[in-house]
Amino acid sequence: MSVATDVEQTTTETREQVLPQARRLVLDMPEYHPPLAGRDALRLDFNENTFAPSPRVAAKLKELTGERMTVYPEREPVERIVAKHLGLESNQVILTNGVDEGIHLMACAFLDEDDEVLICTPTFFMYDVSTSMMTSKLMRVQADDSFTFPFDKFLAAITPRTKLIIVASPNNPTGATVSREHLLQLAAAAPHAVLMVDEAYFHFFGDTVMQDICSVPNLIVARTFSKAYGLANLRIGVLAGDARLITYLRKVSSPYNVNGVALSVLPEALADQDYLNWYVLQVHQGRERVITALEELGVRTWPSAANFVLMDIGERHKEFVAEMRERGVLLRDRSSDPGCDGYVRITIGVEDHVTQGITALRESLAAMSWTPAEGMHARRTSADPHEFE
Ligand SMILES: Cc1ncc(COP(=O)(O)O)c(C=O)c1O
């Protein structure tokens, strides 16, 4: 070996040796890789709006000039509009890069390394991801197979070390809800913790604790504009809560966290209540049609207050999702979620998309010679050490 090569090799080795490691919690935290590749089909897999946002959004997009793209985005004027829309003061809200970033900001602002986080599984996986980078004490309370919120068990899991409680209502992937009464009891039982209620699917449900932020100082409510408003691609959501808590979130947020395109179109989306009502009605009607079709096919489902329905296919869940894909319809296999072995989720969209989805459901199950007995295997799967059972 020549001297030059020798030196090169040593330098490379040294570089590898000294490469800084991420923090321990970052090394240990789970990663979230949603199956985004190859989605060129009917998207009944991510709970998105399956159609389009309000036409007023499309019109506004056409007005945006190249010169506008050169400007750093200003969040505050749109925060005032969003606050007014929600019946709040602007210091009670912060716009975020989707609720995903909202969860991240909550973790950054409130969690020290040994603080406990409490969630009810199965639920949205980003709670695991964002909180695990701050603390290893993520406590999961598993719902039983009815997926109703296990209130007593959850309440009993609150400890003096609990710092953040996150509850999605309606929940993803189950569609189950938590009553306002129960949510307020949780907030009262843990005054030393922040209760974040994730209302990403609020528009398909209608019940909310948004107004309670004015009287409950440890409550934060999250809403997204990705679902009913159809703006998932623009990444915009909002956190609302006591102005003092919102100040902490502003501190840990980048001032330019929400892009200017999203900020420009959001007021248009909010102003078009007719569009929102239309889309929500499409989802309500479609949800009924899907549940009826699944009942006729003998597939077990759970009541859902969201724009999706969870179904119990059983052991052949992968084959079923593949059959659906062959018919041009994407579904989301939720089998790896705790307590969801064999369960598959279908998003509810506009009428035509629901029709295509139901046709594909019928054809896929027939092609598999699937029988209702296959889906009735209620099994608990979670072996998580943090789980309270
Ligand atoms: C419960 C829940 N919260 C938040 C999100 C993410 O919302 P956003 O698109 O605003 O980041 C999702 C997306 O699927 C969700 O299911």
Concise account of the structure shown:
By secondary structure, this protein is α/β, with parallel strands linked by helices. It has 13 helices and 14 strands.
CATH superfamily of the largest domain: Type I PLP-dependent aspartate aminotransferase-like (Major domain)
What percent of residues are in strands?
A: 15-25%
Instruction: Estimate nothing, just give the exact number of structural domains.
Output: 2
What quaternary form is this? Answer: single chain
- What would CATH call the architecture of the largest domain? 3-Layer(aba) Sandwich
* Mean pLDDT over all positions: 93
**The first-level CATH class name of the largest domain:** Alpha Beta
* CA gyration radius, whole angstroms: 23 Å
Poorly predicted parts = 378-389
Shape: globular
Sketch the topology as an H/E string, one letter per element.
HHEHHEHEHEHEHEEEHHHEEHEEEHE
